[in-house]
Design goal:
Helices cover about 0% and strands about 40% of the residues. It has a single domain (about 30-145), classed as Immunoglobulin-like (Sandwich). The chain is an all-beta fold. A hairpin with a 2-residue loop joins strand 9 and strand 10. The strands form two sheets. A five-stranded antiparallel beta sheet has the order 1-2-3-5-8, with no helix packed on it. The chain has a five-stranded mixed beta sheet with strand order 4-10-9-6-7, with no helix packed on it. The protein has strands spanning about 30, 45-50, 60, 70, 80-85, 95-100, 105-110, 115-120, 125-135, 135-145. The N and C termini lie far apart (about 45 Å).
């Protein structure tokens, strides 16, 4: 018996091994940003909804204090994320490899210049595990997207 696998011949998005997201929320609380992520803010201790990477090298600052990130995005509104790196800012584009928890669905995005401001629309609601690479640096975090 011979098994033949065809790649690239389907409209289905690629699947990856499912991941779980134990610390996922669609509405992170507005807390004071890490010291290294405050550049450009007039308040010396700005409080914004944000998620810091597991390695502590990057943070995703969310611009919607009351409205969560949504999939699909709400009409007339973008899923705005400001990426701030503790190390290696400007070392190249930010490569985002995302995997949706429990399904394995994948999405890839690139932010340039990076880290920096972005619109991060992902295809489905749920908890997305994001592997982030910029230059020689790497971190990981989880962002929750609410259903619209």
């Amino acid at each position: 018996m011979v098994a033949l696998t065809l790649g690239g011949c389907t409209s289905e998005p690629p699947r990856s091994a499912p991941v779980s997201a134990p610390h996922c929320t669609t509405s992170p609380p507005a807390t004071v940003l890490p010291t290294w992520a405050r550049v450009g803010f007039s308040d010396p201790e700005p409080a914004m909804p944000h998620v810091v990477g597991d390695g502590g090298d990057i943070t995703a600052i969310l611009w919607a204090e009351k409205d969560p990130l949504t999939a699909p995005p709400a009409e007339g509104r973008n899923n705005k994320v400001l990426w701030v790196a503790r190390v290696g800012g400007g070392d190249g584009p930010l490569q985002i490899d995302a995997v949706l928890a429990d399904t394995g669905r994948t999405a890839t995005r690139e932010v340039e210049p990076a880290p920096g401001p972005s619109i991060l629309d992902l295809p489905e609601p749920g908890c997305w595990s994001l592997d982030l690479t910029w230059g020689s640096h790497h971190d990981h975090l989880v962002l929750g997207y609410a259903a619209r």
